[in-house]
């Protein structure tokens, strides 16, 4: 029986090929090539589907879609084909640079080194034809560095390396045994594999799936069953967290059900996010992603009656860089995101700047869940003032402590903070989930049962011995607005009483063993004979020490 076709099995084979192909490139560097070509293949095949489904090509008997496209889209008609495709898909790929044409050239040995540059140049040019979509596709392949000397010492050698990547990506059919498209899942698994081999760089682009599930479940618990649901991630990385919200949302897979917005500072990671969402079937019209500094440049906003107003969302999710540096100059106290909280987050710890940005864009009836280091719970000075202001405004709903070692990029324990603006209750739920995990080789893993326990406890909102506590506002005030979880959830385990008689017996037994061993050593020392005067002095000293 053949191995069942699954996203994991395909990923395993692709990952093995990637390790064989990458040569001198490290995992994080090679990532851009294999994921970039996977995305190019996806776009090309998506374009083929459009040409067939819309009956744009006049297919002759036995003719492939690619051959028909090569035959028809030429001469004076070429521009019309390209403009029509770009107008409907947001991008367009020339007949000479479709995935099947490139693969054919690689297999026949006719590929020229310049073909790779030409195919990306033409793609970028055609992406400008659709004004509403050009930001979604422009320079999306910029991180596929065709001139990287570590691909090869010559143009021909680099072209050969790229050809090997093309062949490996083309090897697989991205459908499972039931014919379901699993390309997006394969892409996601590969991102996770690259994260696991990228050390501290992993934190820049990937949130472990189980952590994403916790945040996604928290923000979707009260979601309406129908209608559009809006979600925003101000530090979106590769977009995995946004996609997980869709997975947890009732009817989340319905076309147009979720509108995604996100911002990312790192351009390479921003490109990953654009690819990742589209590979999961998200139409460019249902996503608005931006490459910018969230804390420096507030976004998104829309003009209303001549005044710029913040766009607010049903859900805000984030796993921002922990305790990052930011420019907290005094002018930012005029920023509407920060001005109502008394202080700015410290220059070397932007954690609360991300919190306040997210709150600013959270709808009155929405939910925000954000992962941060434990320091935000108890650090004083400016952070203490901001924390107190948030609590007094009754925005903080829950504090959930996670285990240490569950992230690729750091071993520190983290905390999930849950916020709501329209809370009727004036208490805060504390959950200590720090001891619920499975020990792994490289990192600890949250099991489905651990995730479910957190969510069920959050929903019930009641005390659970050594796990959860609902703290009233006066209790928080008594603790000077310090939210350190051990102040509210007592996880102390008493040690078993010591058996004094057994301990004394063990000590006497150990003393007897020591005395016997000392006697044996002394007897052996007495048998030693020195060969000269210096040796005899050393031997006498050793005997004295042992006695």
UniProtKB/TrEMBL annotation:
Segments forming domain N6 adenine-specific DNA methyltransferase N-terminal: 10-168
Highest taxon, organism lineage: Bacteria
PROSITE patterns assigned to the protein according to its UniProt record, in alphabetical order: N6_MTASE
Coiled-coil portions: 500-534
Transmembrane segments: 395-419
Domain DNA methylase adenine-specific: 180-496
Keywords: Coiled coil, Membrane, Methyltransferase, Restriction system, S-adenosyl-L-methionine, Transferase, Transmembrane, Transmembrane helix
Catalytic activity line of the entry: a 2'-deoxyadenosine in DNA + S-adenosyl-L-methionine = an N(6)-methyl-2'-deoxyadenosine in DNA + S-adenosyl-L-homocysteine + H(+)
GO MF terms held by the record: site-specific DNA-methyltransferase (adenine-specific) activity
EC numbers: 2.1.1.72
Entry's Gene Ontology BP terms: methylation
NCBIfam families per the UniProt record, alphabetical: hsdM
Similarity comment text for this entry: Belongs to the N(4)/N(6)-methyltransferase family.
Name this protein carries in UniProt: site-specific DNA-methyltransferase (adenine-specific)
Source species: Fructobacillus apis
């Amino acid at each position: 029986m053949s191995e069942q076709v699954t996203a994991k099995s395909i990923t395993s084979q692709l990952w093995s090929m990637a390790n064989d192909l990458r040569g001198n490139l490290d995992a994080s560097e090679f990532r851009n090539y294999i994921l970039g070509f996977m995305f190019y293949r996806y776009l090309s095949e998506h374009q083929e589907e459009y040409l067939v489904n819309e009956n744009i090509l006049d297919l002759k008997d036995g003719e492939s879609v690619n051959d028909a496209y090569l035959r028809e889209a030429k001469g004076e008609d070429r521009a019309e084909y390209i403009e029509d495709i770009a107008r409907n898909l947001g991008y367009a790929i020339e007949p000479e640079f479709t995935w099947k044409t490139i693969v054919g050239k690689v297999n026949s040995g006719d590929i020229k080194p310049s073909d790779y540059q030409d195919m990306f140049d033409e793609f970028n040019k055609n992406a400008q034809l659709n004004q509403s979509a050009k930001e979604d596709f422009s320079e999306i392949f910029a991180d596929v560095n065709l001139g990287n000397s570590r691909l090869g010492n010559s143009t021909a050698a680099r072209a050969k390396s790229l050809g090997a990547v093309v062949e490996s990506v083309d090897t697989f059919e991205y459908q499972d045994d039931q014919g379901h498209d699993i390309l997006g899942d394969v892409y996601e698994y590969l991102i996770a594999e690259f994260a696991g081999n990228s050390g501290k760089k992993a934190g820049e682009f990937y949130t472990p799936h189980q952590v994403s599930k916790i945040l996604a479940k928290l923000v979707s618990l009260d979601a309406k069953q129908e209608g559009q649901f809006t979600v925003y991630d101000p530090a979106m990385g590769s977009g995995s967290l946004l996609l997980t919200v869709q997975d947890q949302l009732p009817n989340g897979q319905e076309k147009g059900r979720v509108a995604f917005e996100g911002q990312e500072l790192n351009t390479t990671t921003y490109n990953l996010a654009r690819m990742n969402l589209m590979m999961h079937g998200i139409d460019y019209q249902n996503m608005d992603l931006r490459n910018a500094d969230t804390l420096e440049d507030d976004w998104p906003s829309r003009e209303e009656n001549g005044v710029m107003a913040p766009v607010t969302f049903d859900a805000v999710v984030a796993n921002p860089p922990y305790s990052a540096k930011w420019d907290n100059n005094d002018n930012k106290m005029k920023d509407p995101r920060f001005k109502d909280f008394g202080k700015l987050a410290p220059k070397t710890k932007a954690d609360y700047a991300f919190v306040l940005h997210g709150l600013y864009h959270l709808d009155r009836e929405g939910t925000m869940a954000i992962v941060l280091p434990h320091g935000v719970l108890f650090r004083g000075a400016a952070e203490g003032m901001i924390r107190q202001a948030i609590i007094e405004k009754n925005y903080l709903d829950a504090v959930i402590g996670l285990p240490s070692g569950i992230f690729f990029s750091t071993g520190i324990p983290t905390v999930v903070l849950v916020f709501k603006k329209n809370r009727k209750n004036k208490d805060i739920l504390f959950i200590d989930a720090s001891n619920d995990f499975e020990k792994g080789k490289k990192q600890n893993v949250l099991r489905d049962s651990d995730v479910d326990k957190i969510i069920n406890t959050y929903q019930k909102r009641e005390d659970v011995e050594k796990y959860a506590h609902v703290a009233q506002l006066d209790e928080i005030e008594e603790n000077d607005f310090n939210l350190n979880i051990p102040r509210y959830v007592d996880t102390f385990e008493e040690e078993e009483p010591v058996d004094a008689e057994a301990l004394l017996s063990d000590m006497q037994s150990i003393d007897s063993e020591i005395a016997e061993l000392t006697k044996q050593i002394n007897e052996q020392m007495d048998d030693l004979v020195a060969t000269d005067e210096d040796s005899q002095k050393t031997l006498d000293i050793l005997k004295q020490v042992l006695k």
